[in-house]
Design a protein that fits this description.
Layout: H1 2-8, H2 26-36, E1 40-46, H3 51-63, E2 72-76, H4 86-89, H5 93-104
Parallel strand pairs: 1-2
Helix pairs in contact: 1-5, 2-3
């Protein structure tokens, strides 16, 4: 949804859904980052110690010289998962949209 909204504003995004954490299709991610110079990682787990941090580390190792902005993560908050406030906790379209705008305008 955020990618559609950004596209209507002239910002082209590539959305990669790896489907599995292992094996991770790091080659597809690497090709995308090298092509754009930017990366926003979205995942529902807490920001700290989540798999998004592992993907961020892999991107730094493989694409550092191609990055035009810091790798940005949009994740759950570093709190216990609040089942009654699920939609306030999980990454929203607005949070993803804001993160992409920040790396585009870095």
């Amino acid at each position: 949804e955020a990618a559609k909204r950004l596209a209507s504003e002239g910002v082209e995004c590539t959305v990669i859904d790896p489907r599995t954490l292992w094996p991770l299709d790091i080659d597809a991610i690497e090709a995308s980052v090298k092509g754009t110079g930017r990366c926003v990682i979205v995942h529902e787990a807490p920001r700290s110690c989540g798999f998004g941090a592992e993907i961020s580390a892999l991107i730094q190792e493989r694409c550092f010289l191609h990055l035009e902005a810091p790798v940005t993560r949009v994740a759950g908050y570093d709190t216990p998962f609040p089942y009654t406030l699920e939609f306030a906790y999980l990454p929203s379209v607005e949070r993803v949209y804001d993160a992409v705008q920040s790396v585009v305008n870095y």
